[in-house]
TrEMBL record:
<feature type="transmembrane region" description="Helical">
    <location>
        <begin position="173"/>
        <end position="193"/>
    </location>
</feature>
<feature type="transmembrane region" description="Helical">
    <location>
        <begin position="225"/>
        <end position="248"/>
    </location>
</feature>
<feature type="transmembrane region" description="Helical">
    <location>
        <begin position="48"/>
        <end position="75"/>
    </location>
</feature>
<keyword id="KW-1133">Transmembrane helix</keyword>
<feature type="transmembrane region" description="Helical">
    <location>
        <begin position="95"/>
        <end position="116"/>
    </location>
</feature>
<dbReference type="InterPro" id="IPR003839">
    <property type="entry name" value="7TM_GPCR_serpentine_rcpt_Sru"/>
</dbReference>
<keyword id="KW-0812">Transmembrane</keyword>
<feature type="transmembrane region" description="Helical">
    <location>
        <begin position="273"/>
        <end position="292"/>
    </location>
</feature>
<protein>
    <recommendedName>
        <fullName>G-protein coupled receptors family 1 profile domain-containing protein</fullName>
    </recommendedName>
</protein>
<dbReference type="Pfam" id="PF10322">
    <property type="entry name" value="7TM_GPCR_Sru"/>
</dbReference>
<feature type="transmembrane region" description="Helical">
    <location>
        <begin position="136"/>
        <end position="161"/>
    </location>
</feature>
<keyword id="KW-0472">Membrane</keyword>
C-alpha cells in the first residue's frame, strides 16, 4: 500500500491546508508520531504557524538585548546604582527572575513553538532522538519551576524591603535562596528522565504535523498535572498577596511626607516602576494557572488555549523587562551622568 504522503503528493495537494490533512490531524490527535510511516515521510512546507513563530523570535530580540544591558550595568556600575538608592538585592533578584524567564522562553520554543511549525516532525518520527527529547522536556520543567519561584523571590524581597528588613538580611537571602530554587527546579523536573519522551500530534487549530514534545511520565501521570497546578496556584496566590501588602505599605509610607520634593519625586518614580513590575507579573501568572486548570478539565478548547499561552509567557518576560528599563530613573541617569543624587533607601 502506497504511503499517505506519497498519495497526497501524486494529487499535487499541499498537506497542511487540505481537508484530508485536517482529517488526519484529528484522527491522530494527542497520539505519538514515533515511527509512523506517514510522519517518517512527512515534508515540511511553509505555514502560518511557522511565520508566527518567526515573528515571535523577531520581537524577542530587543527585550533580550535590554535585559543584557541591565545585566551589564549591574556588573559594571554597582557603585553608581547604589547611590541612586535602589537596593542591589532588588536588581539582583530581578535579573535572576528575568534570566530564568528567558530560559523558559527558550525551552518553550524547543518544546512547543518550533515543533508546532512541523519543521521537526520528520526528524522526530524517523530518528527518535531520546536524549534530545528528554533534555528538552527536563529543561522546560526545570526552567518553569525555577522561574515561578524566582518571581516569588523578587516580589517577596521587594515587600520585605518596604517593611524595613535590614540590608544584611536581604543580602543573605539573595545569596542562599537562588541556590535552593535552582536545586528544587532541577529535582522536580528530574522524573521526566525516568521514561521515554515522544512527539505528539496536536488537534485543530494546529495543522497536520504540528507536534509538541512531552515525556511519557507527564502524559501518563495525572498527578504530575495536579502537581503543576498546585505550584501555579501557590505562586499566583502568593504574588497576589504580596501585591496587596505592597500597595498597602506604599500608600502608608506615601502619607509620611518627610522627604524633600526632589527626593520624593524620584522615590515616587522608582516606587511606580517596582509596583508596576509586580502588578504586570501577576496577570501572566493567572493565565498560566488557568491553562493548567484547562489541562486537568480536558477542555475541548485546550488546543486553542495553548495557542495563546506563548503570548502570556512572552508578556511576562519581555513587557516586564522593557517596562522596568524604560521607567526606572537609574537607567536614564547612569549612562549620562557621573554624579547622581542620593535618594532614600528606606522605601525602595
Amino acid at each position: 500500500m502506497m504511503p499517505l504522503c506519497s498519495r497526497v503528493r501524486t494529487k499535487r495537494i499541499v498537506i497542511s491546508p487540505t481537508r484530508s490533512s485536517e482529517k488526519m490531524s484529528q484522527q491522530l490527535s494527542y497520539r505519538s508520531i514515533m515511527g509512523l510511516p506517514e510522519y517518517k515521510n512527512f515534508e515540511f512546507d511553509d505555514n502560518w504557524i511557522f511565520y508566527t513563530v518567526c515573528a515571535m523570535i523577531g520581537y524577542s530580540i530587543l527585550p533580550i538585548f535590554i535585559f543584557l544591558r541591565i545585566a551589564f550595568l549591574f556588573f559594571t556600575k554597582k557603585k553608581k546604582i547604589q547611590k541612586t538608592g535602589l537596593r542591589m538585592e532588588i536588581l539582583h533578584s530581578f535579573l535572576l527572575m528575568q534570566f530564568s524567564n528567558i530560559l523558559l522562553v527558550i525551552a518553550d520554543f524547543l518544546m512547543f513553538r518550533i515543533p508546532y511549525t512541523t519543521i521537526f516532525t520528520q526528524f522526530c518520527a524517523s530518528e527518535n532522538p531520546q536524549s534530545l527529547l528528554k533534555f528538552i522536556v527536563f529543561f522546560n520543567f526545570a526552567a518553569a519551576y525555577s522561574s515561578q519561584l524566582f518571581t516569588v523571590l523578587f516580589c517577596a524581597l521587594r515587600v520585605a524591603i518596604l517593611f524595613s528588613v535590614s540590608q544584611k538580611t536581604s543580602e543573605k537571602i539573595i545569596r542562599i535562596v537562588p541556590f535552593i530554587i535552582v536545586t528544587f527546579g532541577c529535582l522536580a523536573a528530574l522524573p521526566h528522565f525516568s521514561t521515554d519522551a515522544f512527539c505528539m500530534q496536536m488537534p485543530e487549530p494546529m495543522i497536520y504535523g504540528s507536534v509538541l514534545i512531552i515525556s511519557q511520565f507527564h502524559a501518563s501521570n495525572k498527578s504530575m498535572v495536579y502537581f503543576n497546578l498546585v505550584i501555579y496556584l501557590i505562586v499566583t496566590v502568593t504574588i497576589a498577596f504580596l501585591n496587596i501588602l505592597m500597595v498597602w505599605r506604599v500608600r502608608k509610607k506615601g502619607s509620611g511626607g518627610t522627604l524633600s520634593t526632589r527626593s520624593a519625586t524620584q522615590n515616587a518614580k522608582i516606587e511606580k516602576t517596582l509596583t508596576g513590575t509586580m502588578i504586570i507579573l501577576l496577570f501572566p501568572m493567572i493565565a498560566s494557572l488557568l491553562i493548567s486548570m484547562g489541562e486537568i478539565l480536558r477542555s475541548s478548547y485546550f488546543s486553542y488555549i495553548l495557542l495563546l499561552r506563548p503570548f502570556f509567557l512572552d508578556a511576562r518576560v519581555h513587557i516586564v523587562t522593557c517596562y522596568f528599563y524604560l521607567t526606572h530613573p537609574i537607567f536614564r541617569q547612569i549612562p549620562h551622568s557621573s554624579s547622581l543624587p542620593v535618594f532614600s533607601r528606606a522605601t525602595l
